[in-house]
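batch_manifest entry 22 of 60
target: Nuclease SbcCD subunit D
source organism: Streptomyces lydicus
requested by: lab member K.T.
priority: normal
notes from requester: please return tokens only, no post-processing; we will run our own comparison against the previous entry in this batch. if the run fails, retry once and flag.
--- input ---
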Amino acid sequence: MRFLHTSDWHLGRSFHRVNLLTAQRAFLDHLVETVRAREVDAVLVAGDVYDRAVPPLAAVELFDDALHRLAELGVPTVMISGNHDSARRLGVGAGLMERAGIHLRTDPAGCGTPVLLGDAHGPVAFYGLPYLEPAMVRETLGAQRADHAAVLGAAMDRVRADLADRPAGTRSVVLAHAFVTGGTASDSERDITVGGVASVPAGVFDGVDYAALGHLHGCQTLSERVRYSGSPLAYSFSEADHRKTSWLVELDETGAVHAERVDAPVPRALARIRGPLDRLLDDPALARHEDSWVEATLTDAVRPHEPMARLVKRYPHILSLVFDPDEGPARSSASYAQRLRGRSDQEIAEDFVAHVRSGRAADEQERAELRSAIDEVRAEDMAAEVAR
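--- output ---
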């Protein structure tokens, strides 16, 4: 069985105000051509099809076109909803689409019901585990606690129970959208921390032949059988060093895995440059970045006059300008966004408490109360999205 593992399309997302629909269309063209040229048996999309719960019409049309093209090829597609998607919206028409080979898995209650495909060696069961917001799915899945590890563990218990009732030799693939321990995050993923914990152990997927993961935007191998495909496009400058790919996975008759990376088209290279303004303007070594999307960090002790207007003459596609003086009182002028980069909601809240109390950090009880409040707000937001 040969399948293409992708995730995190984020259709409708922009990059520092640059519309990416053309680049996303180019990726989907590449995906369809890969499916045709490499004789792929199934396409997997491990969540975050869209960038937000109510996507723009152009993104919906792009998604619709991709599904029609895959259906015309006669290649089954299995996809799950991610934390950016509205599960109910994405799942509309799932029953009808299934007749065309498009299998949408957005209901947590269906975690233990696979899409059954087959090859010359027998059946392969594909289980779709949509993003599981702990507070909303705990009762549905019968989890003991409202945290990521508990609800994903309960979902996997259903998978293993179903698999145990299937004929010997049935191979299995799980699609999941989660932050698995050992993965490396970037700045463009939405924080999914609950109860102070965002990640789940990779061992939760024990018992299946392959886990096709989504959520983290870098292509990563956590083990031979547990992998992230990453996003097909860069959605933050923290991904400047990423090689954007999909996984082309071969599952042999014994369930052994052979995986190959398939490069995605790159609309424009990303570059992060740093130094005093004069060097960024004059250094010949930086000429290779002149056609890139650029994030420039200025280290001048005093903010230069009209730096963006001067930089854009050399770097016409510059998108972000950051001030981070090497020394002196101007250091505090680092942008608010820069100071928050890579920090969770919990860390930001605790930093605020320490700031307004002249450096006295939150104690253990206060940290617990902040964590509870953040979890409650996140649960309310998810409930509101579901209700829309």
